Amino acid sequence: MLRTLTRRASLGAALGLLAAPQALRAQTAARLVVVGGGFGGASAARFARATYPDIQVTLVEPLTRFVTCPYGNLLLGGYRQIGDITHSYDGLRAQGVRILHDWAAAIDPAAKTVRLRGGETLAYDKLILSPGIALRYGALPGYDEAAAEVFPHAWVPGDGSQTRLLRRQLEAMPDGGVVGIAIPANPFRCPPGPYERISMIAAYLKRHKPRSKVLALDAKEAFSKQGLFQDGWKALYGPMVEWVPASSDGKVIRVDPAEKTFESEFGVRHKLAVGNVIPPQSAARIVIDSGLADQTGWAQVDPTTLASRVAPDIHIIGDANNAAPMPKSGFIANNTAKQAVASAVAALRGAAPPEAVYFNTCYSHVGEEYGISVVNIFRAGPNGFVEVPNSGGVSPRGDLPEQRRLEALYADAWYASITRDMFG
């Protein structure tokens, strides 16, 4: 599917270049700036260099190494180490991407510039903006940056310190303790992520602290791959896992790090040995501060080009945009990166953008050899993104140990493939 998109984009670029005026082809190479080096940004930078070698590509990313959110839950389960999910930008650099390890401090859409925290100002012809999410500290009373050192979120991986902190807390807790997970309302990054996390923490507890429990308090009534996850929890962990929906008092309205408690909507205070708070989220601050987000906290984009509705030379991809019903997943970030780059180059060359087709494949680990998945296909519709009817689906339910084992292997292959596609 990705190869098809690449060929289509390459053909469109070639035709656009042939049709472009001679004066345009004689100009200095177009400047493509990419902000954010995660699943969206790294994919965009590598795809641009591989497909359009005449384009100058600059990637702005503050971190020198990228720790993935996907597979971070396996670190909590004890099935991966931090080095297994940490990736270098050396491959992108070797392919000719200029990499600046700095923060994007401000964007001027009118002047088409990005000012970096270190003082440099970058001019662009097209900007690919993929800065990810911001955690809305304060949206959940009691939860701020200091509280995250007691109740880690482990949701913005950064250098991996939050995920490692949560892992250390699990290791240090007494057997028989309760691990509480506070899950927010939609939308948020990686819809199945909290439920894979429940699974991986339960897997660790089953092996090392079998009298303990996972209490998952959810602000929603339903979640991605729900039947499959719950089948797996029942088969693998029994009463160790308790998931509580909002209607059964699952919505956490306040946390108290000092007392190590979660308070639910009906006034119940849950005492915890370890707490994991996944707070409400928005697009990253650079998107909001640049006037590219609306009142929802997310950026609105054209479904064909991913161009901002308010700044057409800025293409906003990955978790920062509002592309519902598409999920905020790594695979969607990778797909939309390529469509955004191809559309940006087409616009520079006076050509039409390629047809927009987006694929989502999301694997989740429920146990060490127990994988499940969901597949979706989306297209650009007249009023936004639309899911193609009957185009995808989830893993079959039932007692299917070989299916589960194979899907766990497929998940590993997916991770290896997509990170290679991002970083080379």
From TrEMBL:
One of its GO terms (molecular function) is flavin adenine dinucleotide binding. InterPro entries: FAD/NAD-bd_sf (IPR036188), FAD/NAD-binding_dom (IPR023753), FAD/NAD-linked_Rdtase_dimer_sf (IPR016156), FCSD_central (IPR049386), FlavoCytC_S_DH_flav-bd (IPR015323), FlavoCytC_S_DH_flav-bd_sf (IPR037092), SQRD (IPR052541). Residues 31-145 form the FAD/NAD(P)-binding domain. It comes from the Bacteria. The keyword Transmembrane does not apply. Keywords: FAD, Flavoprotein, Signal. Residues 1-25 form the signal peptide. The keyword Cell membrane does not apply. Residues 354-423 form the Flavocytochrome c sulphide dehydrogenase flavin-binding domain. Gene3D superfamilies: FAD/NAD(P)-binding domain, Flavocytochrome c sulphide dehydrogenase, flavin-binding domain. This is FAD-dependent oxidoreductase. It comes from Siccirubricoccus deserti.
